[in-house]
Hints:
Layout: E1 6-14, E2 18-21, H1 22-29, H2 35-40, E3 44-47, H3 53-68, E4 77-80, H4 92-99, E5 109-111, H5 118-131, E6 138-144, H6 155-160, E7 164-172, E8 180-188, E9 196-197, E10 221-222, H7 224-246, E11 255-258, H8 263-273, H9 294-304, E12 313-320, E13 324-331
Parallel strand pairs: 4-5, 4-6, 11-12
Antiparallel strand pairs: 1-7, 2-3, 6-7, 8-13, 9-10, 12-13
Amino acid sequence: MQLRKVKILGTGKYLPDRLVTDEELDERLGVPAGWVNKATGVGVRHYAEGETSSQMGARAAERALADAGLSFSDVDCLVCTSGTKEQPLPSTAVFIQQAMGQGESGVPAFDMDATCLSFMVGLDVMSYMVEAGRYRNVLLVATEIASVGLNWQEKESAALFGDGAAAVVIGPSGAQDSARIIHTSLKTYSKGASYSEIAGGGSKLTAQKYSKHNESSYLFHMDGKGIFRMASKLLPDFIQELLKQSGTQMDDFRLVIPHQGSAMAMRLLQKKLGIAESQFLNITPNHGNTIAASIPMGLHEAIHQGRIQRGDRILLIGTAAGLSLGGMVIDY
Length: 332
């Protein structure tokens, strides 16, 4: 186990105003009525209009600080844990700090990117920084605008995604406090790297090489069936190892908070891992797949819906482009 006396102090969430229904996407994609809902299990997702990801992240961050009873002056470090970037340079965290009106604060701000597992990776890494005393209160922000990079020719993946932001404040837990991070496991199998990618826009396929002929290389591509096949083989052993190393079993968890990948991914998780319906948080029907914001959004919803209380043991779990798997055991 990798015990860290670190506590989740507050959470916040922000969703854009524009609601996009399955019915609207049925029409946009030119598919029969009901096709999008059957394929994705979403229902409603949100699309950003006229706002940036840093503005969305700032609103979520402000709500998380309010929830924790803190102000920005209490923050020692701001980390953006997103799978998409507002622009290639500088980091999105810089723009979040600016959007919070803290452009002269000097608070260190940087990004950590592990696509859909960015928040979990950020929480894992920064918890050690809190444990070591390097920082006291860390603000983690996951903010995603997926809608602008979707390939509408790839109908199933295009229909999955929504935009939104979530933020979490962490700090040290007191001597008598039961809150802690118990164990984290992260594994990457780069054999599956091509299953989920945006090939263009970096130093390999630069912006100057963009043309109408290679436009799809600059849009999101996902081989859902390839990811499903690979993840279904890897997940059971991954979880068994995680449970063994953390000294837990599935019945110990009050709630399992997964990355809200797709209806197919959610069914896979429940079935393969033997998670009871009462233990499983599913916010896909009114959020869609919000990339790295998905897990902290789920955490926020679980807390504010009263599905977890202080002292409850929870499991965060997900997959990401890479192909990566992640799981984290937390006593909330």
